[in-house]
Amino acid sequence: MDNSNHISRKDFIKNSALAMAGLSLMPSIATASTLVDSINTSSFKKMKFKNVKLETGFEYEEGEVIATKTGLFCIEIENGKISKISVNEPNSNAIDAKSYLMLPAFKDMHIHLDKTFYGDKWQAVRKRKGGVKGMIALEQQILPEILKNSTEKAEKLIELLQSKGTYFARSHVNIDPTAKLDALKNLQKAIDNKKNSFGTELVAFPQHGVYYTDSVPYLQEAAKMDIDFIGGVDPFSIDGAIEKTMDFTVQLALDNKKGIDIHLHESGESGLKTIEYLIDKVNENPVLKEKTYVSHAFVLGKLEKPKQEEIAEKLANAKVGIVSTIPFGGLIMPIPTLYKYNVEVMTGNDSIVDHWNTFGSGSVLQKTNLMAQLYGYSTEFLLSRALKLATVNVLPLDDNGKQQWPKVNDQANLVFVDASCSAEAVSRISDVKSLVYNGNIVY
C-alpha cells in the first residue's frame, strides 16, 4: 500500500471521530488502510467514499454482451451497512476511491487455517508415502510441533486472505487423538483476535478418520463447542464403512444443530455411493438442506455425462452444495453441469503452504480465473458471471444487466480492485487495493 499520504495516528483518530464530515485527513483508500493495524478498527461508525466505480449495466451488439457499463458514485456507510448510494461528488470531503471498482468482498469456503507453515520458515512438500493414510501418519508426527505457534500462523494466514480481498472463510480444523481439541482452541484464539476484521465458520474435521484413529469422543466434545459444521473424510478408504461413518456424522450434526461438510477424494464406486448415501440422509432429514456440503467430490469428474446430470439434479433437489478447489490436470470437475441444475458451488484455497500443498496464493479470485479458463468462460458475459464463485453468488449485475448490488442496507463487505469491470477482474486477477469488513477498512 502507498504510504505517501501518511498522517499521524493522533490526527487520524481525531479525524475519524468527525465521521463523514471530517474525513479530509484521509485523502485516499491507501492512506486509511495502512493505518488499520495501529487503531481499533471497530471505531469506524460512518464513512463516505467518492469516485467509487460501480457496474450499471451491459452494452450489447447484435444481442451479445460486449462490454460492461460503469459509473462513479458516492457510497456512504454507517453501522456496518451501506446507508446511501448517490451521485458522485468529486470535490467532496470524502475518502477517494480513485475510480477503483467496488465489488462484493470475497469468501474462501474451504481452507485449513489451523495447520499451516505460512508465517513460519519455508518448507516445501516432501515425497508422499502411503497415500492419505501415510499423510495421517506424518501428521501424527508433526502436529505437536505445528500447534506450538498455530495461533500466530493462523493470524498471518488471515492477513494474507485479507490482502487478496477475502473477508470470510470456512476453515476446517483437525479434531483427532493427536491434536485433540488443541487445534480448535488455538484457532479460536486467532479468530477472536481478528473478530473485528474477519469472519469465519468452523468445521470439526476428523482428518485422521472417525474410527480409524477413534476420533469419536473428540468430535462429540467439539460438536458442543463454537463450531458450525461436522466434517469427515473418505469414509470408505479411511474408516472402511460408508454407512456407519456417515450415520455417525449425520446424527452428530442433527443432535448439535450443525451443518455437514465432508472431504471426499474417493473417485471410484465408493465416492459415488458416499454422495448418494449422503443425499438420501439429507432428504430423510430436511433440516440439513442448505446446510450440507461435499468438498472436492472428485468422483463427479469421473462420471459419464448422463450420470453427472443425474447426480447434479439430485444434489440440487436435496440442496446439497459442492465446494471445489478447482483441480486441474487430468481431472476436470463438471462445474458447468452443476450450475445448470442450480447446485450451489463454492471454492477455497484448501491448503496454503503446508505439508499437503506447497502452492496456494490465498486468492479465490485466482481460483475463479482458473475456473473460467478451464471451462472457456472467456466472453464479457461469462467472465462477469464467473465472479460469483469468489463472492458466493453475489453479483453486481443480474443476467439481464440490471444492477442488483450494492443496495442500501446491504452489509458493507466490499473490495476495491484495479479493474474496469468484474469481467476484467476475473480475467486479469486484478490487484486488490482495499478491503472493507462490516464497515471497517481492514486492508
Automatic annotation (TrEMBL):
The UniProt record lists the keyword Acetylation: no
An example molecular function term from Gene Ontology annotations: hydrolase activity, acting on carbon-nitrogen (but not peptide) bonds, in cyclic amidines
Gene3D superfamilies with a match to the protein in the record: Metal-dependent hydrolases (3.20.20.140), Urease, subunit C, domain 1 (2.30.40.10)
Domain of life: Bacteria
Keywords of this entry: Signal
Residues spanning the signal sequence: 1-32
Keyword Ion transport set for record: no
InterPro entries in the record: Metal-dep_hydrolase_composite (IPR011059), Metal_Hydrolase (IPR032466), Metallo-hydrolase_Enzymes (IPR052349), TAT_signal (IPR006311)
Protein name: Cytosine/adenosine deaminase
Lineage of origin: Bacteria, Pseudomonadati, Bacteroidota, Flavobacteriia, Flavobacteriales
